[in-house]
């Protein structure tokens, strides 16, 4: 069966794992266990979908290849409304390529800086946006949390929100969502 993880690249990843098992001569695995694992596999922060009034997608894509695969996956999963993106990146990452890879799939941008000493300042991310994307609706936020709230307040009923750019960015949004669940 196809893996439950979103994206055509996950088929390649699953095939690689199966080949490793075969190369290690681990043919003793029960095929039904392998099938079940492929059908039920989840990976936090990799096209992790949070369903609510609007769809929220959390993806830790933090480099050019990850953002390209993310853009490919978004392209295969249409949305009736707009795609919003909350992007926060670390300073040692290739923000320009990430912006370039995602720009065809994103209608509205919210740029911010994750809570990390390695974070790319929002002003630098905005400068990269202006240089490499140039057009499109873009807002900046003082923090990932405020950017998340800004985006959610402005989402239309058929829109989706993508949160991406780093493990820190996704982690901060997950903390907000967890606090909401716990009623804090």
What does the model show?
This protein has seven helices and six strands. With 184 residues, it is of the alpha/beta class. The chain has a six-stranded mixed β-sheet, with helices on both faces. Helix 3 (64-76) packs parallel to helix 4 (95-102) and helix 4 (95-102) packs across helix 5 (122-132). The longest helix is centred in the N-terminal third of the chain and has 15 residues, at 9-23. The termini are far apart. The model has no long low-confidence stretch (mean pLDDT 86).
Condensed summary:
With 184 residues, this protein is α/β, with parallel strands linked by helices. It has helices at 9-23, 31-40, 64-76, 95-102, 122-132, 144-154, 167-181, and strands spanning 48-50, 55-59, 83-88, 108-112, 137-140, 160-164.
Q: How far do the termini sit from each other? A: 40 Å
Q: What integer is the average pLDDT? A: 86
* Total count of strands: 6
Percentage of β-strand residues? 15-25%
Q: Spans with pLDDT under 50 lasting ≥5 residues?
A: none
Helix proportion = 40-55%
SS-derived structural category:
alpha/beta
Main pleated-sheet profile: 6 strands, mixed
**Spatial strand sequence of the major β-sheet:** 1-2-6-3-4-5
Radius of gyration: 18 Å
Secondary-structure element string: HHEEHEHEHEHEH
Dominant shape:
globular
Number of helices: 7
């Amino acid at each position: 069966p196809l893996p439950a993880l979103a994206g055509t690249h996950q088929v390649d990843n699953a095939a690689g794992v199966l080949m490793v098992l075969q190369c290690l001569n681990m043919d003793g695995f029960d095929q039904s266990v392998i099938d079940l694992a492929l059908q039920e596999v989840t990976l936090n922060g990799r096209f992790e979908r949070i369903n609510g009034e609007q769809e929220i997608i959390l993806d830790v894509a933090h480099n050019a290849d990850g953002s390209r695969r993310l853009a490919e996956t978004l392209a295969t999963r249409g949305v009736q409304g707009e795609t919003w993106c909350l992007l926060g990146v670390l300073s040692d990452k290739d923000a320009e390529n990430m912006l370039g890879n995602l720009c065809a799939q994103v209608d509205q941008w919210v740029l911010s800086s994750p809570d990390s000493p390695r974070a790319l300042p929002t002003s630098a991310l905005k400068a990269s946006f202006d240089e490499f994307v140039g057009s499109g609706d873009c807002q900046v936020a003082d923090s990932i949390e405020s950017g998340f709230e800004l985006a959610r307040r402005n989402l239309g009923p058929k829109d989706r929100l993508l949160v991406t750019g780093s493990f820190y960015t996704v982690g901060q949004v997950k903390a907000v969502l967890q606090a909401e669940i716990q009623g804090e």
